[in-house]
Structures are given as C-alpha cells and as structure tokens.
Amino acid sequence: MKSLDHMPSLEAGAATCNPITQSDENLDHLIIRDGVAYAGTHLIIDLWGASHLDELPRMEKAFIDCVKECGATLLHIHMHHFTPNGGISGVAVLAESHISVHTWPERDYAAFDVFMCGDAKPELAVEILQKAFSPSRIEVGENLRGRMDDV
Predict the structure, then answer these.
(1) At which residues is Pyruvic acid (Ser) found (predicted)?
(2) Is 97 a catalytic site residue?
(3) I need a surface site. Which of 5, 30, 111, 118 has the fewest CB within 10 A?
(4) Out of 80, 102, 134, 136, which one is annotated catalytic?
C-alpha cells in the first residue's frame, strides 16, 4: 500500500487522480492511451457460481490484494454484513477512485465495480477476485469514464 505522505511527484503529462500531486502540470489528470483521453476505467465484474461471498475477512483481503496488484492507493475500506443471508456490501475508497461489492451468497452471485484512474491497472483485479471466490463464470464490462473525444 502506498503512503500518501511519500507520493512521488509525477512528470508533466503523467496520468493520475491523486489529489496529493497538485504540482503536476496536468491538473485534470486525464489518462491518454491510444490517442483517447478519459478520466478512468470502470470495470463491472459479475461473479456467478462463486463461493465464500459471506466471509468478511476474505472480502477485505481480496480488496486489499486488488488495491496492491492494481497499483492503487487505499484510503479507507468499509464493509457491512447483512443478516440473515450473510450478504456483504462494501467499498474501498481509493485515491484513484473506488472498488465496491454487493454479494448474494444465497445465489452464489457477486457484483463488483472497479473504477480507477491514473496509472492504476483495474483489469488486474479480475484475476484476484477469481482466485478469492472461485466463480464458475465471470462477466466483465468496461467503460471509459469521462471520455474526451476532442483532446
């Protein structure tokens, strides 16, 4: 996990949403890849036939592993465990945006959102979630948020 106190200054034009790097010349912190500028990548990840969806420690570890693997900066995690079915709703607030989850363990289903901007790599979260919850099927949708067509 990166410390906010020791965040490196980024070179001009580098992409990040971290508010700590206000000295960066590119204050809008857009990502520019393949000639397209956008705010961040938002993945919608559905896990079907998944297990352990009612285990708070496993969910929190999966979030932390995603943050580390994706190169993001964790600010806060909050999880809520519902009863009687044991479902979990949770969010990890990141300097780069967020990861959220809602689970239906009685249906073996989980809905994750992974939204990250800057240099973070949200696509790396898919494998972490697959290992943590062993789904029989994963569906991933991608949305480039804040797309600027005239940059």
Answers:
(1) 97
(2) yes
(3) 5
(4) 102
